[in-house]
User: Fold GNAT family N-acetyltransferase from Cohnella herbarum.
Amino acid sequence: MEIRQLRSEEFEDRTALSQFAFQYHLTPEEKESKRLNYRPEQDWGAFDERGELLSAMLIIPLEAWVQGRKLAMGGVAGVATWPEARRRGCVSKLLVHGFDTMRKNGQTISMLHPFAFPFYRKYGYEMTVERKKYSIETKQLPARQETPGQVKRMMKPDIEILNAVYSSYASRYSGNLVRTQDWWENRILKKSGAFAVYSNENGQPEGYVFYQIADGKMTIHEWVSTNEASRTALWTFVANHDSMIDEVTLIAPIDDPLPFLLSDPRIKQEVIPYFMSRIVDAEAFVREYAWDESAGGEREEEVAINLSDAHAPWNNGIFRLVWSAGGSARLERLEGQSYEQAASSGEAVSCDIQALTAMLLGNRKPSFLREVGRISGPVAKVKLLERHISERTTHLMDFF
Assistant:
């Protein structure tokens, strides 16, 4: 079996596989449009000895907000295998090759939307993003309130304005994408709907809602409010549609407080496990990660980490996680006598790459992970680790 990037002339084979696996059909016009935008350098395939495509996987070069910083991320998508090639290890080989590729490209983390969570957990991915879906009857909408500033419909979407508001909001969570002009044009604005933007009394945009109305239902594709004034004003705008709609649906972050703010909080809520993440290169990721600066003291602090990773051997081993007095950190591999001492002392915190991902990308506290048996180690060392990790809700508004 050969693992390699696809070539432009293999577009038809890749498209046929995708249509079969994901059960959709492209018109000739849609196929030609995809051909023009096809990027074979992002597409990896598993081929048999005759050169026939068995399985394929996209690695999309993206950036994600993590603890307020932009980190290079490999977005895994479009994983598909012909039925006659299944259970031959094609996807396993693609993923393992992909981890090495992402590491070489400086993508310290990876994210994906799983067809099955248990399957990707075998490869070190862990659930990091959950979202809430609201279905709200018009009679339950927040009461209309006067606010400074105003909400105006944007007749022609201005990406520069929208992205500035989006970035201010998205960077408050870990997991959201850093959107490019191309992403806006080819991913966001391809959806049907309209934008309404809230600007404060000084004319500064501080929130927007991207919505569509059909058959008496308002579907909110995106809700972005950076402060309470924008939240209140946008809900008043939505409520002003009460004569033409019966229901509003939207997706919100898992910590969204809307039900508490409603006079009647008995709205329909659904918690949806959404995306998974994985640390690809632990040493590089630790250097880039924004640790809690308030936890730093006058001297360095450290904890030994016994890390296991079945599919990325560079993450395997015992490391010293060292925080400087200024709050930055480094992960140093232990060898020789230092390794022996750390291994025999019983002072190391032991975890796999999934648990480390859950801590640093999934907002799961080390103390909780220890309680449920996902990590082990002395309580004092676990608490030290926890003290250096800032709490930040995870969220992802996009799909890939």
